[in-house]
């Protein structure tokens, strides 16, 4: 080996110093992990020491699912929950969620699935009578109306009687009307009297009652007990009408209502691979989730919608007080959604501390939302008043974990709500 290939004394000293620094950094990180683990073990030990001894049979009694409903959850140990849902056409009375308490009794009240009386909302319009049925209702419509909800007018023939022609003589009708919204009536002679009728969708008119004029159903049935003929836009046609929907919606089979198009599920979007496609009512949004940039803490993306904080240096208190995780969620709602109602839940999967605290952070969303606790481990985002669309609201729900009042960790859930311009 040549002499010039051997490292000098100064180079060796620099290399050794770099190795010392790397070792010190690894040792600091290792010690921080050990301290965090030791703290959790102490908290767990205290929790076990405070917990009363369990009896031999340390499970809550089994709960049967309600008739016409289902039970979700099979674990019966203290701290676990079961949930109840009802079949279509039934509403839940009692507690939707029940938790097995330390006393080995269930929280809340027994769940019962009661048949929904659809007739309470008066679904039969225009004087129709309603009969409640299991998972539905039926209407007996008054004369002149038809359809499942008695909101479609039946074809009407308008008759005019003119005693102007001798018996057996055919009436003479003008031939000058060429507009698509005008028709000639059909007339016949009976014992010297002329009877004229119009086809459905037209009414007889004119100075001499010799022309049938189109009925504008869109104008005639725009308001009233029956409501509008179309959910969105009604277009009058010769002898009838047709409905249309805004961009982002398809017309349903009944020809009157509008159904949202799922651009994300059908591939009708231009979102890139780095973006999430969020379907909204009447459209879609391309969203790119990025981890927060903080001076004393760094984050790594662990899923398309979640960022976890990297380990903190042992001496950095500001880093340890930064959120341990930041999750992103996106919701789509219609304009004017009725309130109050729960729109989102935040829950701790595992608890180390003795309590959780939930808070709604900043933003103009305070006018429409609040946060409340539903049980020991769950907070609910509650819509308190309808939100007119179109609008995009950004909210942050903070969940803080405490042990005897001391902060153990903070977790942020960012929720973006896309409000449609329409009420459907």
Automatic annotation (TrEMBL):
SMART domains per UniProt: CCP, EGF, EGF_CA
Domain EGF-like: 115-151, 214-259
Predominant location: secreted
Domain named Sushi: residues: 58-115
Gene Ontology molecular-function annotations: calcium ion binding
Keywords attached to this entry: Calcium, Disulfide bond, EGF-like domain, Extracellular matrix, Glycoprotein, Repeat, Secreted, Signal, Sushi
Compartments where found: Secreted, Extracellular space, Extracellular matrix
InterPro entries: cEGF, EGF, EGF-like_Ca-bd_dom, EGF-type_Asp/Asn_hydroxyl_site, EGF_Ca-bd_CS, Fibulin_C, Sushi/SCR/CCP_sf, Sushi_SCR_CCP_dom
Pfam family, one: cEGF
Record keyword Glycosyltransferase present: no
Cysteine pairings via disulfide bonds: 86-113, 141-150
Keyword Hydrolase (UniProt): no
Family per similarity comment: Belongs to the fibulin family.
Name of the protein in its database record: Fibulin 7
Taxonomic source organism: Phoxinus phoxinus
């Amino acid at each position: 080996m040549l002499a010039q290939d051997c490292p000098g004394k100064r180079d060796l000293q620099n290399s050794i110093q770099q190795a010392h620094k790397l070792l010190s950094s690894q040792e600091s990180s290792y010690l921080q992990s050990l301290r965090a683990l030791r703290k959790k073990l102490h908290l767990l030990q205290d929790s076990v020491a405070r917990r009363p001894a369990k009896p031999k049979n340390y499970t809550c009694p089994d709960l049967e699912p309600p008739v016409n409903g289902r039970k979700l959850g099979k674990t019966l140990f203290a701290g676990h929950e079961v949930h109840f849902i009802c079949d279509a056409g039934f509403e839940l009375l009692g507690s939707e969620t029940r938790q097995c308490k330390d006393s080995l009794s269930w929280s809340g009240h027994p769940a019962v699935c009661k048949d929904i009386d659809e007739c309470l909302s008066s679904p039969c319009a225009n004087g129709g009578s309603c009969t409640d049925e299991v998972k539905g209702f039926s209407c007996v419509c008054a004369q002149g109306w038809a359809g499942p909800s008695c909101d479609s007018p039946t074809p009407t023939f308008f008759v005019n009687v003119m005693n102007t022609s001798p018996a057996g003589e055919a009436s003479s009708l003008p031939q000058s009307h060429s507009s698509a919204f005008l028709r000639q009536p059909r007339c016949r002679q009976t014992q010297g009297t002329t009877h004229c009728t119009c086809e459905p969708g037209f009414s007889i008119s004119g100075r001499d009652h010799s022309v049938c004029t189109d009925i504008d159903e869109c104008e005639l049935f725009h308001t009233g007990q029956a409501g509008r003929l179309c959910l969105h836009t009604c277009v009058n046609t010769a002898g009838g009408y047709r409905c249309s929907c805004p961009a982002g919606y398809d017309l349903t089979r009944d020809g009157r209502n509008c159904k949202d198009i799922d651009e994300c599920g059908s591939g009708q979007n231009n979102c890139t691979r780095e973006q999430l496609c969020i379907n909204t009512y009447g459209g879609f949004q391309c969203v790119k989730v990025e981890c927060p940039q903080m001076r004393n803490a760094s984050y790594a993306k662990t899923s398309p919608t979640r960022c976890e904080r990297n380990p903190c240096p042992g001496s950095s208190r500001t880093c340890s007080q930064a959120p341990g995780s930041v999750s992103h969620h996106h919701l789509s709602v219609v304009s004017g959604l009725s309130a109050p109602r729960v729109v989102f839940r935040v829950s701790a999967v595992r608890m180390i501390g003795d309590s959780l605290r939930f808070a709604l952070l900043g933003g103009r969303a305070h006018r429409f939302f609040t946060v409340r606790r539903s049980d020991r481990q769950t907070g609910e985002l509650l819509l308190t008043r309808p939100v007119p669309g179109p609008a995009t609201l950004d909210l942050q729900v903070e969940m803080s974990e405490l042990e005897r009042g001391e902060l153990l960790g903070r977790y942020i859930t960012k929720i973006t709500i896309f409000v449609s311009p329409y009420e459907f």
